[in-house]
C-alpha cells in the first residue's frame, strides 16, 4: 500500500551567487528571503507542510507561479532533500517531472531505455522487450538509435513519456509538461496515461489547468508562498481559488 506523509516539511534554496551587501539589503525586504547561519541568502520554497496522501488519492497541486508546486513534486520524488521536518514515501515512484531527468545525452534513445530497465533490475531480454515497446509508442523511427542530444523538444517529450509510462509505478508524480505533446501524439498518449493513473495507488500532479484537475483528481492542495492554504475535495479548493482570482 502506498503512502506519502509529510510533517513540518521545509525546503530552502540558497542563492550562492548573491554576495553584494547592497543587493542583499534590497532583497531582504521580501518575505520569503532570509539569511542562513552562514549569512547566505536563502529562499524558503516550502514552509512547514503537513499532509498525508493515501491509496486512491489523486491529488492536484495548485497555486500561482512560484507557489512551490514543482519544488514539492521534486521533493516527493527524492530530487531535493528537506531542510527540516520529515517526509516518508512508501511505494515505487514513477516521475514524469523533468523531461530529460536521468537520461544520458550522448546515448541513443534505445540505450537510455535499456539503462533505465537495467537500473530497475530487468534482465537483458526484458530490457530488449521494453526498448521495443517504447520505440513503438514513441514513434521516433530511426531517431531511436541516434544520441538524444540531437532530438527536438517534442521528440524528447515523446521518448520520456513512452519510457515513463512503460513501467507501472505505485506513486505517480507528474508535472504539467505531459500535456505539451503534439495533438496526434496526445490522442495516443491519453489512453496510456489513463491506464497509468488507474494502475497507480497514488497520483500527484502539479498544474495550472483546472480542467485537468477536474478530470483527473479527487483532491487538491492549494499552495501559495510555499505554504498550504487549502487541502480538500477538488471543488472546495478550486472554488476558494476562483473566488480570489
Ligand atoms: N533551483 C532553484 N534554485 C533557487 N530557487 C528556486 C529553484 N527552484 C525553485 N526556486 C524558487 O522556489 C520557489 C517555488 O518555485 P516552484 O518552481 O516550485 O514554483 P511553482 O509553483 O512550480 O511555479 P510555476 O507555476 O511557475 O511552475 C520560487 O520562489 C522559486 O524562485
Write the layout of secondary structure elements.
Layout lengths: L2 E13 L5 H7 L5 E3 L5 E14 L3 E5 L6 H8 L7 E7 L2 E4 L12 H11 L4 H15 L14 H12 L6 E5 L7 H17 L2 E5 L3 H7 L2 E6 L2 E6 L1 H11 L1
Parallel strand pairs: 4-8, 4-9, 6-7, 7-8
Antiparallel strand pairs: 1-3, 1-5, 2-3, 9-10
The protein binds adenosine-5'-triphosphate.
The site of adenosine-5'-triphosphate has 12 residues, from strand 3 and helix 2.
Keywords: ATP-binding, Nucleotide-binding, Transport
GO molecular function: ATP binding
Pfam family, one: ABC_tran
Written overview of the protein:
With 245 residues, the protein is of the alpha/beta class. Helix content is 36%, strand content 28%. It has 8 helices and 10 strands. Helix 6 links the parallel strand 7 and strand 8. Belongs to the ABC transporter superfamily. GO terms for molecular function: ATP binding. InterPro entries: AAA+_ATPase, ABC_transporter-like_ATP-bd, ABC_transpr_TagH-like, Bact_Polysacc_Export_ATP-bd, P-loop_NTPase.
Amino acid at each position: 500500500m502506498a503512502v506519502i506523509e509529510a510533517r513540518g516539511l521545509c525546503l530552502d534554496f540558497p542563492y550562492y551567487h548573491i554576495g553584494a551587501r547592497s543587493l542583499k539589503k534590497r532583497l531582504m525586504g521580501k518575505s520569503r528571503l532570509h539569511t542562513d547561519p552562514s549569512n547566505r541568502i536563502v529562499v524558503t520554497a516550502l514552509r512547514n507542510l503537513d499532509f498525508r496522501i493515501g491509496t486512491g488519492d489523486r491529488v492536484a497541486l495548485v497555486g500561482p507561479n512560484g507557489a512551490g508546486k514543482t519544488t514539492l513534486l521534486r521533493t516527493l520524488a527524492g530530487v531535493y532533500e528537506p531542510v527540516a521536518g520529515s517526509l516518508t514515501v512508501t511505494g515505487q515512484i514513477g516521475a514524469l517531472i523533468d523531461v530529460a531527468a536521468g537520461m544520458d545525452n550522448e546515448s541513443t534513445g534505445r540505450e537510455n531505455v535499456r539503462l533505465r530497465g537495467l537500473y530497475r533490475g530487468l534482465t537483458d531480454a526484458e530490457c530488449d522487450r521494453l526498448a521495443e515497446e517504447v520505440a513503438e509508442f514513441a514513434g521516433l523511427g530511426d531517431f531511436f538509435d541516434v544520441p538524444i542530444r540531437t532530438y527536438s523538444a517534442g521528440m524528447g517529450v515523446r521518448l520520456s513519456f513512452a519510457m515513463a509510462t512503460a513501467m507501472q509505478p505505485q506513486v505517480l508524480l507528474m508535472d504539467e509538461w505531459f500535456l505539451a505533446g503534439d495533438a496526434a501524439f496526445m490522442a495516443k498518449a491519453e489512453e496510456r496515461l489513463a491506464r497509468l493513473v488507474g494502475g497507480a495507488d497514488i497520483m500527484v500532479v502539479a498544474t495550472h489547468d483546472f480542467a485537468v484537475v477536474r478530470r483527473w483528481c479527487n483532491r487538491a492542495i492549494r499552495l501559495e508562498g510555499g505554504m498550504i492554504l487549502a487541502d480538500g475535495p477538488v471543488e472546495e479548493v478550486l472554488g476558494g481559488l476562483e473566488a480570489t482570482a
